[in-house]
Write a structure and sequence with these properties.
The chain is mainly alpha-helical and about 190 residues long. The chain has six helices and two strands; from the N terminus they run H-H-H-E-H-H-E-H. It starts with a helix and ends with a helix.
Length: about 190
């Protein structure tokens, strides 16, 4: 894939993530949508931890690859865009169970988007990153690392849309119950 196309894919994917996080209000960002789920704030923090780690990896030490630089891209895509498979995050990128500030999350996500776009446009993407080897995939080329970010982010965009629907529906039900309670109280007076 050409650099321009990859740049557009990074830009569009991260922009969609940022727009989705923006669509939550401050209360919603920390609302648990359903049992066992992360909040939107936690998902945002997870993306920050993961994607900022990839920014470091992309800008860290590299070596010549000795293989096709896109060898793992299709496998990464298949793994992350299979929404029927449940995945477990490594502990070091699991978000803290705290309340998150929406604006702080958005600022960090925007900074990461800028850094990733810069990497796509300025770095030799055929080189293999030496900072970190991923479980299952091993050492990735910069090109593969960028696609990891794209597909991992797309997976979480899918989840974030689900979280948004659940949170909005939860708030609607809460409002309806409050309204019914007010009507009942008025009728009993």
């Amino acid at each position: 894939m050409k650099t321009k196309e990859m740049h557009r894919e990074v830009e569009n994917t991260l922009k969609e993530l940022i727009q989705l996080v923006s669509s939550f209000n401050q209360e919603q960002i920390n609302t648990i949508p359903f049992e066992g789920s992360w909040t939107a704030g936690q998902l945002g923090r997870h993306m920050i931890k993961s994607n900022s780690g990839f920014v470091e990896m992309l800008n860290g030490p590299v070596k010549d690859s000795g293989r096709e630089p896109d060898k793992m891209v299709e496998r990464i895509k298949e793994d992350f865009l299979d929404f029927n498979t449940k995945m477990k995050s490594p502990d070091f990128i699991v978000p803290e169970n705290i309340n998150y500030n929406k604006e702080a999350l958005l600022s960090s996500l925007n900074n990461i988007k800028v850094d990733l776009n810069k990497a796509v446009l300025t770095l030799d993407l055929t080189k293999t990153c030496l900072v970190f080897e991923l479980p299952v995939y091993g050492a990735l080329t910069r090109l593969e690392a960028i696609y990891f970010v794209i597909y991992h982010t797309q997976r979480h965009i899918h989840q974030l849309k689900n979280i948004f629907q659940k949170v909005v529906n939860k708030q609607k039900r809460k409002s309806e119950i409050q309204e019914k309670t007010k009507v009942k109280e008025r009728n009993n007076v």
